[in-house]
Amino acid sequence: MSGHSKWATIKRAKGAKDAARGKLFGRIIKEISIAARDGGDPDTNARLRMAVEKGKAANMPADNIKRAIQRGTGEMEGVNYEENTYEGYGPGGVAFLVETITDNKNRTVAELRHLFSKYGGSLAESGSVAWKFDRKGILTIPRAYGEDDLMMIALEAGAEDMATEEEYFEIATDPTTFDAVKSALEEKEIEIQESGIQMVPQNTMKVEGKDAEGVLRLLEMLEDHDDTQNVYADFDIDADVMASME
After folding, report:
1. Of the candidates 158, 149, 89, 87, which has an alpha carbon nearest to the alpha carbon of residue 117?
2. Residue 210 belongs to domain with CATH number
């Protein structure tokens, strides 16, 4: 598996745990509220549409989604959230991007700095590691379809690439063609397990031993932070090491 697909595997497992603990709803509500600032109609606001779809996929009640949109548009009083992305280095020099939505920026940056320091890393200045990542649309498709046919549909709709993993296909697009590729797959009634815009590392760094364990611990702690929305990293760690950490 590539470093990115390993990271994605961890994210899926983490997402299931978050859902069980009720943490997932809180993150989706923040995302919907932020996205709705640019308009409360999902049909004309692509980011809001993706956030609402994520909420529906997580079985979030429709009333919760409606209220989150109304808070974002200002129709209802709500918390004043702001978005910030933090950059840092983990054990072994692994690059991290941490996307947050918070009502207290000073608290968030102090707590993230503490986590990086405690788990063998350091918070870095803006721009230090962001250049190592590309913004991509990512769609995950189960291995229930013919690879060649699926690739043809995706590429004709504007996809850039398709990777074959053990249990799924991963289609990568430019963010500007993401909606077109997603629509083309849906028109063919192809199941999309997950979809969204992500920061994908241009290259991955092989990490072993204590550094590998440290990277995974730091990743877990950053993911667990209440203000965290997404964490991206450029590590490549052997599958058996990840399995032992689970």
Report:
1. 89
2. 3.30.70.980
Among residues 125, 101, 130, which one has the least CA distance to residue 113?
A: 125
Residues 65 and 31 in one domain: yes
**Are 198 and 138 spatial neighbours (Cβ–Cβ below 8 Å)?**
yes
Examine the pLDDT at 14 and tell me if it is beyond 70.
no
Whether residue 1 is predicted with pLDDT greater than 50 in this model: the reply is: no
Q: Single out the residue of 136, 82, 126 nearest to residue 105, CA to CA.
A: 82
What's the CA angle centered on 171, arms 203 and 202, to 5 degrees? Answer: 10
3-state SS class at 201: strand
Rounded Cα distance, 209 and 240, in Å: 11
For position 103, what pLDDT does the model report?
93
Task: Tell how far CA 179 is from the center of its chain.
Answer: 17
Count of domains forming the chain: 3
- Give start and end residues of each alpha helix (H) in the chain: 3-20, 23-35, 46-57, 62-73, 105-118, 147-157, 178-187, 209-224, 239-245
CA 24/CA 75 separation, integer angstroms: 24
Domain of 187, in residue numbers? 133-201
Q: pTM to 2 decimals? A: 0.86
Taking the alpha carbons of 41, 43, 46, 49 in that order, is the dihedral positive or negative?
A: positive
- Let me know whether 142 and 20 are in one domain: no
What is the C-alpha to C-alpha distance for residues 55 and 47, in angstroms, rounded to an integer? 13
